[in-house]
Design a protein that fits this description.
Length: 481
């Protein structure tokens, strides 16, 4: 028999009857177990993630099937056959904890690789692009997706008001309103690093890289009606599906592919490769398969393994560096700041976030510190065995140019790639896209918002715009004026 103890390990005699003065009470302050139990219960909730609050996680392994040392010195991509353990978290973006899993939304796709040179995170989505490309716009964008401050209801009016005033969102909106806005399961989604990153090899040569995780289960989606039905029956459908697959040994797998772009070519590509609202053509830079990962272990404790997990695009390892993508640069700050707020200054000491490698530096103390052994807490110092800088981790110097200013972000063409995506959709997919837009944009109260947004669709592709106008009963003269 396992004996009941307090959190301090003391044997605990009674977990069902409070200590009272006499049979009828009152309760005594002396009942330390009762007071601790109530106090701890009051502190069980931590702030949920401000975005991507609801999600599912698992553990797995990445296997490198092609040595990539010609392109990056990153340890996890060097040495064919190398295996790296990982934690993954899939998520909804807009809804809170408890929100139904199958509401149309982009889905998060975060991976933490526990490499031999510390943690490397890829914090992506199930779409290769994003709604905005300047970090100043992110909080406003998310406010439009969250609840109306007065009614506390989510609001199509807010969402489409923002999108229709932000043409750079058109490409992603065309994805979101398409079939991929309702994945059939997390195992049936592709994942993308979305941004362009920099790889640097041991010789100091740099390449631009984009990550693609291709589901070996195939991409499968739900129709709007199926998703609504599931939402009413099982709000946690996607979490359960992932958990059950792994429990039943039906381990989901993804091929890991990259697009590699030579450094100078990337700087002169026809689209700005640092604009995260754009893709880079697979014809120009084909996908190259470099490995596979499998998810083969469920969380043992959801709170510890998933809720306390903290991912950050700033978690990089030698051989992988950020690009000048402005949105990515904003993200390099945001996630670690969010982790300090949500989990505390020592969130990296939590088991799910701590690297499998040793940590040696001069940071000390703070709430919940698990400490670092060694008694030297300053540098420079006289001790030979104290931690020393590692020049192997130096970034590749890069040139910057121009005058400091608040520049208009990237080019003026948010339309072509949205139009091209519309063209890629089959006739059935186009029908469902128009129906989804009819449902969502159609429920907006403001006529001006409907017209403004439909003009964007029309500029992306005339047929696209005409079909939306038709579905919404808008006059084409207003769209083409
Ligand atoms: C979560 C900020 C853009 C994917 C978060 C969180 C913040 C945040 C604060 C919560 C983190 C936490 O509490 O642990 C931002 C900012 C962005 C941005 C400021 C733009 C400037 C993006 C983009 C993507 C993305 C472009 C995908 C390509 C995710 C994912 C999560 C997340 C997947 C969930 C991470 C997890 O599973 O714990 N974001 N985000 N975000 N974001 Fe972003």
């Amino acid at each position: 028999m396992t004996k009941l103890t307090t959190d301090e390990g003391q044997p605990w005699a009674d977990n069902n009857h409070s200590l009272t003065a006499g049979n009828r009470g009152p309760v005594l302050l002396q009942d330390y177990q009762l007071i601790e139990k109530l106090a701890h219960f009051n502190r069980e909730r931590i702030p949920e993630r401000v975005v991507h609050a609801k999600g599912a996680g698992a553990k797995g392994v990445f296997t490198l099937t092609r040595d990539m040392s010609d392109y990056t010195k990153a340890d996890l991509f060097n040495g064919k056959g190398k295996q790296t353990p990982l934690t993954i978290r899939f998520s909804e973006v807009a809804g809170e904890l408890g929100y139904p899993d199958t509401i149309r939304d982009v889905r998060g796709f975060s991976i933490k690789f526990y490499t031999n040179e510390g943690n490397y995170d890829i914090v992506g989505n199930n779409t290769p692009i994003f709604f905005v490309n300047d970090p100043l716009k992110f909080p406003d964008f998310i406010h439009s997706q969250k609840r109306d401050p007065a009614t506390h209801l989510r609001s199509e009016d807010m969402q489409w008001d923002f999108w229709s005033h932000s043409p750079e969102s058109l490409h992603q909106v065309t994805y979101l309103m398409g079939d991929r806005g309702n994945p059939a399961s997390y195992a049936n989604m592709n994942g993308y690093g979305s941004h362009t990153f920099k790889w640097v090899n041991a010789k100091g040569e740099a390449y631009w890289v984009k990550y693609h995780f291709i589901s070996e289960q195939g991409v499968k989606n739900m129709t709007e009606d199926q998703a609504a039905e599931v939402a009413s029956e099982n709000t946690d459908y996607l979490i359960q599906d992932l958990y059950d697959r792994i429990k039943n040994g039906d381990y989901p797998k993804w091929k890991v592919c990259v697009q590699l772009i030579p450094y100078e070519e990337g700087l002169n590509y026809k689209y700005d490769i640092f604009d995260v609202t754009k893709t880079v053509s697979h014809k120009d830079y084909p996908l190259q398969e470099i490995g596979e990962f499998v998810l083969n272990e469920n969380p043992e404790n959801y709170f510890n393994d998933v809720e306390e997990a903290s991912f950050s695009p700033a978690n990089l390892v030698p051989g992988i560096e950020p690009s000048m993508d402005k949105l990515l640069q904003g993200r390099l700050f945001a996630y670690k700041d969010a982790a300090r707020y949500r989990l505390g200054a020592n969130y990296e000491h939590l088991p799910v976030n701590s690297p499998k490698t040793e940590v040696h530096n001069y940071a000390r103390d703070g709430y919940m510190s698990q400490g670092q052994n060694g008694d030297v807490n300053y540098e420079p110092n006289q001790y030979e065995d104290a931690p020393r800088e590692d020049p192997h981790a130096k970034i590749k110097p890069f040139a910057v140019e121009g005058e400091a200013n608040s520049y208009k972000t990237y080019d003026e063409d948010p339309y072509s790639q949205a139009g091209a995506l519309y063209h890629v959709y089959s006739d059935d997919e186009k029908d469902r896209l128009i129906q989804a837009i009819k449902k969502h944009l159609g429920s907006v109260k403001s006529h001006d918002t409907k017209v403004r947004q439909t003009k964007l669709f029309y500029r992306a592709d005339h047929d696209y715009g005409k079909r939306v106008a038709d579905a919404l009963g808008l006059n084409m003269d207003e769209i083409t004026e």
